[in-house]
Specification:
Helix content: under 10%
CATH topology of the largest domain: Chitinase A, domain 3
Strand content: 35-45%
Order of helices and strands: EEEHEEEEEEH
Number of helices: 2
Shape: elongated
Number of strands: 9
Structural class: mainly beta
Largest sheet: 5 strands, antiparallel
Number of domains: 2
Radius of gyration: 19 Å
CATH architecture of the largest domain: Roll
Length: 161
């Protein structure tokens, strides 16, 4: 069975940056299971997997535009420390939800200089090439319930919201 929209696909993957550092991997745990064609994976990876079948291996580089987007300097803002007074243990790398004009957004503390805290609203992988090594473990038809919900249920059905 080939990967096509409305198929449930299980993959093992290793994600590296351009220097070869491993950023994420499923190899030691459960495979990642997703519903193909419903925007549950980054667009570039979904496109590369289309038409493949169980047992196939692919090695692909996804550009930022097909991954987590280009790095957007407009999503970086500096705020006085007192604006974050509810947060203890604030340090570089701390992730928090900030209310923005566009609604809540995940921000990462990227710098702290004196009383000024720099918050970065870019995805940590924005602007980076994503080098995926993927092995397709299983391809099956989605159940009607999975289709109506737009994501996978049951074992291996991770909720990434």
């Amino acid at each position: 069975m080939n990967i096509a929209p409305d198929q449930v696909v299980s993959i093992h993957y290793t994600l590296k940056d351009d220097s070869g550092k491993i950023l994420d991997s499923s190899v030691d745990g459960e495979p990642l299971t997703y519903l193909h064609g419903h925007g549950n994976l980054i667009p570039g990876l979904e496109r590369e997997l289309a038409g493949k079948s169980a047992g196939d291996r692919i090695n692909v580089t996804i550009a930022p535009t097909d991954g987590y987007g280009e790095y957007d300097a407009a999503l970086v803002q500096s705020v006085p420390r007192r604006a974050l007074k509810g947060i203890r243990d604030l340090r570089v790398g701390t992730r928090l939800q900030a209310q923005t004009a566009q609604g809540p957004r995940a921000m990462t503390v990227s710098r702290i200089v004196g009383d000024l805290v720099t918050l970065d609203g870019n995805h940590p992988l924005a602007g980076k090439n994503l080098n995926f090594d993927v092995e397709i473990a299983e391809v099956r038809a989605a159940t009607p319930e999975e289709l109506s919900h737009g994501h996978v249920h049951g074992p291996g059905g991770h909720h990434h919201h």
